[in-house]
Amino acid sequence: MTDAPAPKRAVRAAFDKAAGSYDAVASVQRAACDQLLTLASEQGFSPERILDAGCGTGYALAGLQRTFPGAELLALDFAPAMLRQHPPGLALPLCADLEQLPIADNSLDALWSSYALQWCNPRKAFPELARSLRPGGQLWIATLGPGTLGELRDAFSHVDSEDHVLRFQPPEVIEDAAEDAGLRVLRSERDNLYAWAPDLRSLLRDIKTLGAHQTGAPRRRAPLGKAAWARLAAAYEAHRTPAGLPAAYDTFWLIAEKR
């Protein structure tokens, strides 16, 4: 499992389209950032130059500025519309891919990436991340694991035998790629974060609003018929809780240091 989970062009287009409405439904994404910031701040590290790689609409930047007030911030995303959502002057914007960073060797003290690495091939991304860090620099990452949207995968299993939801890389693949790139893992955590919706249509609409509908298999399919939709909705109801229908985001946080 080393290939990127979806075509980059399709992912970029999805996030460009989602940029204006993304923040309204990004509660899980904010929670992942908040936990990553907690882990980063506990390292007792004082970086002078930080890159937010896969910055999206820039939610993490204010927290990074607050936690590391003396640091220069750079913000990189491969979706131009996401960069246009940033407050002016908070960080230097860069439009590029994690697998081809426009960053000089050994030029960063810290590299932050939350919910972006899952769209990359880790064997391509980690060498780039490591190359950009100075020796002793730190990498702070949150990414999605294979249990993401497991409820949706289970519900689709009642409709047909195809895989409608992509399985992201397991933590052991991420850690191995980091170690092979010359990084030493300092700390890791894994937990499910949940989004909630009152019904299946609302849940799927929120996923699409996030641009995350590219978590579906890349091959184009015909829309579900009424009977198939009814089976899907009924199967998803088995996961209902008092809070509504859940959508799990299997989240893996990693703190590493360049050797």
Q: How would you describe what is shown here?
A:
With about 260 residues, the protein is α/β, with parallel strands linked by helices. It contains 9 helices and 7 strands. It has a 7-stranded mixed β-sheet, with helices on both faces. Helix 3 links the parallel strand 1 (about 50-55) and strand 2 (about 70-75). It is globular.
**Model regions low in confidence, pLDDT < 50 over at least 5 residues:** 214-220
CATH architecture assignment name of the domain at 8-148 and 167-196 and 251-258: 3-Layer(aba) Sandwich
The CATH fourth-level homologous superfamily of the domain at 8-148 and 167-196 and 251-258: Vaccinia Virus protein VP39
Helix content: 25-40%
Strand order of the largest sheet: 3-2-1-4-5-7-6
Tell me the radius of gyration.
Answer: 18 Å
**What letter string, H or E per element, gives the SSE order?**
HHEHEHEEHEHHEHHE
Q: Distance N terminus to C terminus?
A: 26 Å
CATH topology of the domain at 8-148 and 167-196 and 251-258: Rossmann fold
Number of strands: 7
Overall pLDDT, averaged? 93
What percent of residues are in strands? 15-25%
Structural class: alpha/beta
Shape: globular
Major β-sheet annotation: 7 strands, mixed
Number of separate helices:
9
